[in-house]
Amino acid sequence: MRLDVEPLDGTGAIIAPVGRLTLTTAAQLREAVDDLVANGRARLVVDLGRLEFVDSSGLGALVAGLRSARAAGGDLRLANASPQVATVLRLTNLDRVLRVHEDAASALADG
Description:
Blueprint: E1 2-7, E2 12-21, H1 26-38, E3 43-47, E4 51-54, H2 56-71, E5 75-79, H3 83-91, E6 100-101, H4 104-109
Parallel strand pairs: 2-3, 2-4, 3-5, 5-6
Antiparallel strand pairs: 1-2
C-alpha cells in the first residue's frame, strides 16, 4: 500500500491510501496519522477512492486514527469510499462512527 499525504492549512491533511489496507499495511496508516497529529494536524480526511480492499485490521487502524485525532482536538473523516469499502463499513456499523462523505472537500466543509 502507498499513502499519499496532502497537507492542508496549518491544522489539516488529506491521507489517500492506495491499494489494500490490511494486517500488513495497517501500521503504516497508524504511523502516518500519529505523525500528522503529533505535528499539529488533527483535522484529517482519509480519501478512500483508491483503496481496493480493507480488512478488520485496516478498520482498526481507521478507528485508532479517529481516537488519535479526537484526543488532539480534531477529527478524522472518510471520503470517497468505493462500493466494496462502503459495504464493509456498513456491515460493521462503522459508518455510524466514521462518517463517510462524498469527497474530501465535503468532508472538510462538514462542521
